[in-house]
Design brief:
Two copies of one chain form a homodimer. Chain A is an alpha/beta fold. In chain A, 24% of the residues lie in helices and 22% in strands. The longest helix of chain A has 11 residues, at 50-60. The relative contact order of chain A is 0.17.
């Protein structure tokens, strides 16, 4: 994975800010030299159409001078082969993975990323980079043939990572409890990325950016709070 | 479905109370005449074993004079055929459904319920009664062969239904947003059962019990708040 270049954001926006505003210094740096980003709108937040979602992404990149095109505009397989860079937006992870598996895009996209094409994800699109999407927070509104993901990183991500609310009277499981249950049946590490955090990955180097620590889970061990900087735990 | 008898609880306990304490008046009424309940521990909250979970359920029924046995104690298929009543506990819905499908129990259990055997569920066990478990809140820590559920009611349930928190700065989807997304791809009604609510179903009659309203979602319509009593909307 020496060639990979990834920007994996926990969320597309943080409270009170515009779409991708908190990434406005990171984006031009990561996408330096890129003229057009190919956008994968398959996660369809709120069930909006591919076109509607692509319009949102175009607006998000408007200030950067980089053009955005939807992967569905023209031949999807050709668009993956010719993409300068890919950005997969958030929404429903099950819907995203189902559409990617059924359109046969998972392996071609993976190969392009391993060969060095820059990949950016936010939320569901960040989940997609992991070994599986088994640590998504989403509702299974559709049924994909598999939970296998791109596996361009050797761990899973839990985006929108949420600390337990000490005042909550709700009896649903905390995020940490869910990830501990995940580790009863799965061996891969899980990185809990808080909103406002992102990973910048250049080859073998993984950096946590933004102002928050990440909460990192390894099977059979206590979770670790890792500060921004090189992600090691 | 004239013979069905169901008790479907949103949660096994409410904040600050013991396991099933809030159901202590309902349980003896629903299970009148039943000597032994067969417990399905497959949802394994926190990844505990079938035996450990069955011990929890036994303690929950200790005050009722009703015996509890785990479905895994002896031959599972025979235990379903001979059960006087079944209770499926909460935990991880994906794990529950996977174990039921893989052990071939889904159809036999469904038939017993349609023939009048009393069925109780809480949380994941309540989800299980619906058309699918596509409205679960759980993390897909394992991957079942299908999301199809018992279909002993003609709608889906969202247990632990949670109203939006107006003070939250978290950008994850609200429960209502998730259910609206579900309805972009699925047609069945969804009943959001708040913690402390349960459904008591006798044949064709469905009653909402407990102190809360249920929030009921129909595809293409505005959600409706339905008060305790006969569930009609």
């Amino acid at each position: 994975m020496q060639k990979r270049r990834l920007l994996l954001a926990s969320t597309s926006k943080i409270h009170g800010q515009d779409y991708m505003a908190y990434l406005q210094t990171e984006l031009p740096d990561f996408f330096q030299g890129i003229k057009t980003i190919t956008f994968i709108p398959f996660a369809r937040p709120g069930g909006i159409t591919f076109d509607e979602y692509t319009t949102v992404a175009k607006a998000g990149f408007a200030g950067t001078g980089i053009k955005v095109m939807g992967i569905h505009e023209g031949d999807i397989a050709e668009n993956i082969e010719n993409a300068e860079a890919v950005f997969t937006g958030g929404g429903n992870t099950f819907l995203l993975v189902k559409t990617l598996h059924e359109s046969g895009l998972m392996q071609p996209l993976r190969q392009r990323i391993l060969n060095g094409m820059p990949y950016m994800g936010s939320s569901a699109g960040t989940n997609l980079a992991g070994i599986s999407v088994g640590t998504t927070n989403d509702m299974p509104i559709v049924w994909p043939p598999s939970l296998k993901a791109l596996e361009v990183i050797d761990f899973n991500i839990n985006p929108h990572y949420l600390d337990p609310d000490p005042n909550s009277k709700h009896m649903g499981e905390t995020r940490e409890t869910r990830i501990r249950e995940f580790h009863k049946f799965n061996t891969q590490d899980v990185v809990g990325l808080r909103e406002g955090s992102w990973l910048r990955i250049e080859g073998e180097d993984i950096f946590l950016k933004g102002e928050h620590h990440a909460r990192c889970f390894r099977q059979g061990q206590k979770p670790v709070e890792v500060p921004p900087g090189k992600l090691i735990w």
